[in-house]
Amino acid sequence: MFLKEELGIFERNHPKSKKLWEKAIKVLPGGISHNIRTFGLPIIGGFPIFISSSSGPYVKDIDDNKYLDFWNGHFAMILGHNPPEIQEIIKQHLQNGWHFGTNTPYQIELASKLIDDNPGVEKVRFCTSGTEATMYATRLARAYTNRKLIAKAVMGWHGASDTLCYDVGGLVNGKAPLGQLKAEEAGIITFTINQDDSFDMIQKNSSQLAAIILEPILGGGGGFAVNVEFLKRLREETEKYGILLIFDEVITGYRFNDSLLQNNLKIIPDLTTMGKIIGGGFPIGAIGGKEEIIELSSPQSKSQVLIGGGTFSGYPLSMIAGLKTLEVLKKSQQNYSRINEEGTSLIHRLNNFFNDHKLPVVATGFKSIVMLHVMSKWIKNPSFNEILEFADKRREALLQLALFNRGISGLHGLGALSMANTHEHIIQVMNVMEEIAEPVSQSSLN
Ligand SMILES: Cc1ncc(COP(=O)(O)O)c(C=O)c1O
Predict the structure, then answer these.
(1) Which CATH architecture has domain 84-330?
(2) What pLDDT, in 10s, does the model give residues 102-119?
(3) What is the domain partition of the chain in residue ranges?
(4) Which atom of ligand 1 lies at the shortest distance from residue 252's CA?
(5) Predicted local distance difference test score (pLDDT) of residue 32
(6) Which of these, 16, 32, 370, 376, is most buried using a 10 Å CB contact count?
(7) How far apart are CA 11 and CA 22, in angstroms?
(8) Phi-psi bin for 327: left (phi > 0), alpha (psi -120 to 50), beta?
(9) Is residue 132 very low, low, confident or very high in pLDDT (cuts 50, 70, 90)?
(10) Is residue 130 lining ligand 1, measured as CB closer than 6 Å?
(11) 86 Cβ below 6 A of ligand 1
């Protein structure tokens, strides 16, 4: 009943999106250009909405519905949507042309800024996406160590390259999506975060491991924070065995304060991959780290590692928007503290509510990252493995639908707070969740 009612409301409010969706599935496989952008809705008979504009904490769809948005341009828009400072600088620079396929001064400025802010970043190579950055970082690690094996975390998301797309989104035990080599053929081994037996894997493979790559907070994997103790031990063990440690900070970089998360953790990896926020909402990827490793990618280096392609690498608008964003973030300490605290308290309040009512919903995340999972049964304080094992994807899709119907847009349940969010927005989320968590998790799905 609840599902039917919610689908009815959604259809009534989105006639234009529905029409466009019917067109989209004819010309795009699955109707989308990024798998998660269906928001899961087709599995319960719905369809995704099409966004036409954005401002501050809001996005607006083509049917003129306005949403309080926590998806935040896939975590990139930490200043909120369409921030005036970025608008202004992009407008100014557009007059000069926007793509030259040459060097520009801006890439030196952005690289210098990243180096100044982060002791672990001695040199930087830019590319256009986080996917490329992680692919190149592991290539550098293999070349530097002259070893083949890469260890990645189960559910760690580093983009869908052939190199690292293993044990992601429902595929486990080293599984790769169709069309890719088997993990052992591709030189990939996986481990689980926060588990001691992961160190047995490292010891067993220590002489063959080129690198261990992981996100300090699993993003696409569901907003799970890796314990600091686990990360510290990873650093110790990798140093002991000459294995490179790569932190994928594509989401966490500049999200919690105006530098990489590794500085707060006081754990400096050998290489770091970056993206999203540092491009100010324009396409970007970057690899930073120890000079002697990154320098292998220099065309002047004798043992050159080819990470040289990319028509749009160092894209001028990305460099300019990124620089301006980092400049604004430098002056945003109060906003950082505010959204970090609001996020922490929201996760806490949501989980208290779900537990008090024995509802099989759980909030995960860290500071301003807040995600929601619907499970097939209630477990008090479920573990990472339990949340994955009992994930109820259809109900999670119903949760997204019910949120849209109440003016809240998110993905992975919610996503992340931006600096455009206020305390009132958090109360709004809390109120809506108190209204929908029970019917979402308990009503019939037939
Ligand atoms: C941690 C992490 N690494 C890498 C990527 C891939 O980045 P991109 O989508 O820019 O290729 C993502 C994307 O969501 C990510 O979250």
Answers:
(1) 3-Layer(aba) Sandwich (3.40)
(2) 999 999 999 999 999 999
(3) 2-79+333-442, 84-330
(4) 1
(5) 94
(6) 370
(7) 13
(8) alpha
(9) very high
(10) yes
(11) no
